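Re: Re: token formats

Sure, here are both.
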Amino acid sequence: MRNVYLDTAATTPVDPEVVKAMEPYVSQSYGNTSSIHAFGRDAENALEDSRRSLMKKVKAKNHRLFFTSGGTESNNFAMKGVAFANRDKGNHIITTRVEHDCVLNSAKWLAKHGFEVSYLDVDREGFVDADALEKAIRKETILASVIHGNNEIGTVQNLRELGRVCHDHDVVFHSDACQSFTKVPVNLEKDNIDMLTVNSHKIYGPKGVGGLFVREGTKIDPLLHGGGHEFGMRSGTVNVPGIVGFAKAAEIMKDSHISHMSGLRDMLIDGVSGIEESWLNGPGKDRLCNNAHFSFRHIEGESLIVHLDLKGIQASTGSACSSKSLEPSHVLLAIGLKPEDAHGSVRFSVGKENTKDDIKYTIESLEEAVSTLRKISPFRS
């Protein structure tokens, strides 16, 4: 049976070049970066080479990169670290209704510990309005967190504009760029970003490694305490193989890959546009190169996923971190979908290894599955 993996927003396979780069630090130069002997120095050199390589990707001249276990830890670190470090200034935090669950749940946790959180609405395409952000800022506002590339519907926010608003009011600006890193150009200085969350396994690197870029001078407390690794800001034995793999994955992501994925995404969008009572969620432009998210009226997304899986096509009903939940997606509700339409939605996320034949096969299989499911749908009048 044919196998077509269209769930790269959930995770990607590790690129063979990445595996090759990691291998020496698993089996040969396996030292602890805290050790002063030769093996430790080799590991430390690999760590710092990787840090410099990743910093170049976002033109980080006045930021430090702290390595973490992934996007969830980085977002928790950013939200909680800044909140508690700046409690003497204020207790108000701003975020949006379309954030990843780890940001929203961090905000809920902070609300239980004396912080006040405001949630910005978005328009039908998932965009945050800069004027609405400015109106939400108060004298006690200390942090605003806005996702860069949305993990469900692919909307890419204008960070430069939103960051400018925050800087005009002396508010720390953070963005979750797990889905957009290496896919959308970011310049930490020009884009007015104080903190940026990135991770590895969305870009053909290993799971279990990520990072948080933090502007020099930003007041932030550590989330994890221990032996003082990562400049005293993230204790725990450093995952050198993972970090080396992360840097290599970012290095080998090319503009040609972005163009290839964008072409396949558009091909899929054009193909699905011919299916009755279906529509694209998110914007037609300013969209992640790999994301195509659709709603299909009168059917359940999970049933559609099962039918596609039987054809060898892997996709998702939404964020892989919460796809087992029976609740409709908070992102889809935020852009105005009815709960029943939100339940009938599927996210396809293409990868650099996919082909035009994969997309043709997916469109054909999708048309057949939708037709079959609508014939037996209890939701169709």
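Second one below.
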Amino acid sequence: MTRRESLRYLAAFLAGSPLLQGQYSPRAEHGRVPDIDEIASTLEFEPIARAKMTQLNYDYVAGGVEDEVTLRRNRKAFDWLSLQPRPLRSVDQVDLSTTILGQPMASPLLVAPTGGQQGVHREGDVEMHRGASAAKTTMCVSHVATFPIPEIAEAAEGDLWSQLYVHLNPDGARERITEAGAVGCKAIVWTVDAQYTSLRERLRHGANLGERLAFQERAEVAARRRRRSRGSRPTNPYGLNPETPDLDWGFLETLRSWTDLPVVIKGLLTAEDARLAIDSGADAVVVSNHGARYMPHCPATIEVLEEIVDEVDGAVPVLVDGGFRRGSEILKALALGADGVLLGRAALWGLGAFGARGVQRVLEILQAELMLAMANCGIRNVSEIERSLVRMDFP
């Protein structure tokens, strides 16, 4: 072997050596993007969606408030519950269908209201509705959707609910409710756990670099309109942005006078607030910590679900959101008494990865996993699910 040949072989070895870190690209971890039919779980959609998004839009969807303790707790808490399999029960037919607020549903899954969808996919909420409809799943349209609600409604035939923020603008809220009723929405979901905009550190760092969210310009225009409509109001000394700091439970009576649609109260974490919601006229409640995006150091929703169900005692449906990624986790919530589960980020990852097909696939994976978990627990239909299916070991 000549000296030249020796150097060539040495160079080839070094170029392929894992010790040479410079050969790795920043996105090398993504590797080959799998086809949608190759994906085995909802968790596998996130890295594909992330690769297609700007960093700031990803941080808006994925991030939580402050140091994100609650974000991690939402996921960790599912490990503190175990399911009890029940063999030798006839489960040759397993039926996921249910009824919530008098509305027949193919399964107890719903798509939660989530903002910023156009930062995930260029057709955002429109494409989300297409995917949810294909999976026979009700979608709750975000109040800050990046497409008008009539356009979203026209995109597919599936059922819609409409989220509501009041945002110091009751006239605008009433217009929103009227518009939702006009396009056939079947419920109003009033989100009540956003008194002031939270401190999301990921987004603050992105803003320092001059980045903008996909929907930010529209949101700023809407904020200017709200400020003009409400006139001069006192500001707080810390520069915090008020969202709904001026309302109490008495406003629910006013809201109920504006619509004949069921009113769902979203954002409760205590039995006391669930009781106040029922006494004030709510038609349903959602146990939610806002995807861990507003109040830091909250309990996981699955931790407090049982006490709220016990307080409600069947008076109204109880729904829950917060970190659900598996059908077995959905079964745990149903066993603790939830009537339905809303899916936020899981559906968004499907949207970002493959558009409507991804949303449909995420929902179908969860439906299949739920059906399998029910079968292994000897459950033939949703009405047979009971609390004895779970054992709880919360710290």
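The CA atoms of residues 51 and 94 lie 37 Å apart. The domain at 37-234+253-392 is CATH 3.20.20.70 (TIM Barrel).
- S.
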